[in-house]
C-alpha cells in the first residue's frame, strides 16, 4: 500500500532518526563510562550512595501506595455519582496537574503547606506551637500525591466507565449492598488496573527531580537524580556523579523490565449498549461518603492551583512582564520549546513511517520484525536514561572544549525533544494507523507519492494529531527544569530557571508571579492539545 519510492524514503529517514537518537544517548553514556571508572566504581557502593538508593526506593514506594490508596476511593465515587454537580469539571481538574509545570505546582504546595502557608497559619491560630514542615520526606510525599493521585483517578475511572450497564442493573435486581458491589463488580476491574497504575506512578516517583530538588530536606532526603545534579553543580565530583548515573540507569532499566511483565487491562465485557445507570448512587450513605471524598480530593488538588493563581495575581505582573530578564528568558524558552517540539514531531513521524513500511509487508522476515521492534524501542530509550543523566554525560563530554554553557540551548532542546518523543509517538500512532487503513489502498492505486501524498492526502487528515503532539511537546519543554538545571546561569535563563532562581534568592513574590505566567502558558498549550483530542474523538464517533 506504499509506493516503492516512499518505502525507501520512509525506511531511510526512520533509520536515520533512530541512529541519531541512539548516538545522542550513547555518547552521553559512553562519556560517563570512560571518565575515571576506577573512582566511580569506588563511589558506587559506598554508604552515601547506598543510602540515597534506599531513600529513592522508599519515597517512591510510599508515594505510590498513598497515590493509589487515595485515588481509588475518588475514582469509585466519581464513577458512582454520575450526576454529581460539576462532575465533568472535576474530572477536567484532575487533568490539570498533568499539564502543569512541576515547579509551578511545587510553589502552590508551599503556599498551602509551607511554613508561612495557610495550613500552618490555621495551626498557629488553633494554638499549635510547632508548625508543619513541608521540607523533607513529608513534603516529597505530599507533592507526589498531588501530581499522581489525579493520574490514578483518571486511569481507574476510565476502567470503571468501560463496564457494561447490564452489570449495574443485575446488581440492583440482586439487591447487592455497597460492599458486595465493590467485591464482585468493581474490584475485579480495579484489580487488573492496579499493577499497571502503581508501576507507572512508582517509575515517575523514582525518577522525580524537580520536586525533590525544591522540597527535599538536604542529604537526608535526596534521590539519585538530585544527587547527580548536586555532585556536578555544587561539589564538582564527576566520579560520584558517574556512579550515581550508572545506578540510575540500572534502576530505571530494571523498573522498565518489571513494568513490561505487568498484566494489561482486559477487554470490557459483552454489552448490548444500554445506558449506564448506577442504582446504588441514590443511597443516602453512599451519596454522603462519595460527596465527602470528592470534595476532599478537590481541595487537595485545587487548593495549590488557587494558591498559585492568588499569589501570582498579587505580584506586580506588569513589572515582571516588562523586565529585561523575563523577555530574555521567554525568548530562550519559546525558542527551545519550538525547536524541540518540531523536532519531536518530525522524529516521531520518521519512526512511525519506517514501522509502517515493515507492517505493510504481509509476511515480514525476522529481520524486518527486528527492525520494527528496534524502531519502536527508540522512542522509549529516554525512559532508560533520564534527562539529568543525559545532561551529566554531555557535560563531561563537552567540558574539554570550553564553556559548556555555550552548547546549553541546543543540548536542552535535544533533551526536551527526547522527553516528549514517547508521548508524541503515542499520540500520532493511532492516527497514522487509522489513516493508513482507510486510504492506503486508494493512494497506492492512484500512484500518489512523495510530497504530493503528504500535502494532498496525509496533512488534511493528520494535522489535528500533529497539532496535539506539538502542543503537548511544547508545554513539556516550556515547563521543564530538569534538563536546564545543570546548564542554567545568568547567561542562559529559561522561564523555569527564572522561577527557581527567584525562589533561591527569597524573592518569593516575583517567583509566584513568574510561576503564574509560566503555568498559564503551559496549561493553555496542554488544553489546546486536549481539546483537539476531544474533537478527533467526536469526529471518529
Textual characterization of the structure:
The protein has 541 residues and is mostly helical. Helix content is 77%, strand content 0%. It has 23 helices and no strands. Helix 3 crosses helix 14, helix 10 runs antiparallel to helix 13 and helix 19 crosses helix 20. The radius of gyration is 25 Å and the shape is globular.
Supply the helix-strand structural class. mainly alpha
Total helical segments: 23
Q: Give a quick account of the main beta sheet: strands, pairing sense, barrel closure.
A: none
Strand content: under 5%
Gyration radius (Cα, Å) is 25 Å
Mean pLDDT: 81
What would the principal axes of the Cα set say about the shape? globular
Order of helices and strands: HHHHHHHHHHHHHHHHHHHHHHH
Number of strand elements:
0
Q: End-to-end distance, in Å?
A: 26 Å
State the share of residues found in helices, binned by percent.
Answer: over 70%
Could you name the ranges where pLDDT drops below 50 across 5 or more consecutive residues?
Answer: 267-273, 530-541
Main attributes of the structure:
541 residues; mainly alpha
Topology (SSEs and partners):
Elements lengths: L3 H30 L3 H8 L2 H34 L6 H7 L2 H4 L2 H12 L4 H8 L11 H25 L3 H9 L4 H29 L3 H6 L8 H10 L4 H23 L23 H31 L2 H6 L1 H36 L6 H13 L2 H4 L2 H12 L9 H39 L3 H29 L16 H10 L3 H33 L1
Helix pairs in contact: 1-16, 1-19, 2-13, 3-8, 3-10, 3-14, 6-8, 6-14, 8-10, 10-13, 12-13, 13-19, 14-23, 16-17, 16-20, 16-21, 19-20, 20-21, 21-23, 22-23
Provide a short characterization of the protein structure.
The chain is mostly helical and 541 residues long. 77% of the residues lie in helices and 0% in strands.
Amino acid at each position: 500500500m506504499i509506493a516503492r519510492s516512499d518505502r525507501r524514503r520512509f525506511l531511510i529517514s526512520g533509520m536515520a532518526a533512530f541512529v541519531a537518537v541512539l548516538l545522542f544517548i550513547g555518547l552521553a553514556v559512553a562519556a560517563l563510562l570512560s571518565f575515571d571508572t576506577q573512582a566511580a566504581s569506588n563511589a558506587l557502593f559506598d554508604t552515601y550512595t547506598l543510602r540515597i538508593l534506599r531513600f529513592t526506593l522508599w519515597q517512591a514506594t510510599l508515594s505510590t501506595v498513598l497515590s493509589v490508596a487515595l485515588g481509588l476511593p475518588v475514582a469509585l465515587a466519581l464513577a458512582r455519582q454520575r450526576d454529581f454537580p460539576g462532575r465533568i469539571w472535576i474530572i477536567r481538574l484532575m487533568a490539570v496537574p498533568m499539564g502543569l509545570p512541576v515547579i509551578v505546582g511545587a510553589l502552590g504546595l508551599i503556599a498551602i503547606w509551607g511554613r508561612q502557608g495557610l495550613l500552618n497559619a490555621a495551626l498557629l491560630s488553633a494554638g499549635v506551637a510547632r508548625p508543619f514542615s513541608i521540607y523533607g520526606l513529608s513534603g516529597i510525599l505530599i507533592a507526589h500525591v498531588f501530581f499522581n493521585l489525579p493520574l490514578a483517578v483518571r486511569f481507574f475511572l476510565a476502567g470503571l466507565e468501560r463496564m457494561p450497564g447490564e452489570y449495574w442493573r443485575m446488581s440492583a435486581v440482586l439487591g447487592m449492598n455497597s460492599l458486595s458491589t465493590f467485591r464482585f463488580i468493581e474490584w475485579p476491574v480495579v484489580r487488573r488496573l492496579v499493577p499497571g497504575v502503581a508501576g507507572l506512578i512508582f517509575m515517575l516517583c523514582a525518577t522525580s527531580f524537580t520536586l525533590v530538588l525544591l522540597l527535599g530536606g538536604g542529604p537526608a532526603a535526596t534521590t539519585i537524580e538530585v544527587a547527580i545534579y548536586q555532585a556536578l553543580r555544587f561539589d564538582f565530583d564527576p566520579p560520584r556523579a558517574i556512579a550515581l548515573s550508572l545506578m540510575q540507569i540500572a534502576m530505571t532499566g530494571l523498573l522498565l523490565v518489571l513494568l513490561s511483565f505487568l498484566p494489561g487491562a482486559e477487554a470490557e465485557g459483552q454489552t448490548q449498549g444500554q445506558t449506564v445507570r448506577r442504582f446504588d448512587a441514590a443511597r443516602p450513605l453512599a451519596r454522603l461518603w462519595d460527596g465527602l471524598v470528592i470534595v476532599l480530593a478537590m481541595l487537595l488538588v485545587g487548593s495549590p492551583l488557587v494558591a498559585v493563581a492568588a499569589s501570582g495575581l498579587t505580584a506586580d505582573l506588569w513589572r515582571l512582564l516588562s523586565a529585561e530578564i523575563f523577555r530574555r528568558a521567554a525568548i530562550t524558552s519559546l525558542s527551545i520549546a519550538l525547536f524541540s517540539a518540531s523536532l519531536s514531531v518530525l522524529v516521531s513521524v520518521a519512526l512511525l513511517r519506517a514501522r509502517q513500511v515493515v507492517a505493510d509487508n504481509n509476511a515480514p522476515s525476522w529481520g524486518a520484525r527486528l527492525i520494527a521492534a528496534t524502531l519502536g524501542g527508540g522512542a522509549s530509550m529516554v525512559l532508560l536514561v533520564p534527562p539529568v543523566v543525559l545532561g551529566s554525560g554531555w557535560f563531561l563530554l563537552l567540558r574539554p572544549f570550553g564553556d559548556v554553557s555555550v552548547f546549553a540551548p541546543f543540548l536542552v532542546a535535544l533533551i526536551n525533544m527526547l522527553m516528549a518523543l514517547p508521548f508524541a509517538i503515542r499520540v500520532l500512532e493511532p492516527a497514522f494507523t487509522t489513516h493508513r487503513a482507510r486510504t492506503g489502498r486508494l493512494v497506492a492505486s492512484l500512484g500518489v507519492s512523495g510530497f504530493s501524498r503528504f500535502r494532498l492526502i496525509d496533512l488534511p487528515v493528520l494535522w489535528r494529531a500533529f497539532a496535539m503532539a506539538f502542543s503537548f511537546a511544547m508545554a513539556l519543554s516550556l515547563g521543564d527544569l530538569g534538563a536546564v538545571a545543570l546548564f542554567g546561569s545568568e547567561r542562559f535563563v529559561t522561564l523555569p530557571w527564572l522561577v527557581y532562581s527567584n525562589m533561591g534568592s527569597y524573592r518569593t513574590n516575583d517567583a509566584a508571579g513568574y510561576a503564574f505566567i509560566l503555568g498559564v502558558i503551559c496549561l493553555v498549550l496542554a488544553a489546546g492539545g486536549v481539546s483537539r483530542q476531544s474533537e478527533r474523538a467526536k469526529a471518529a464517533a
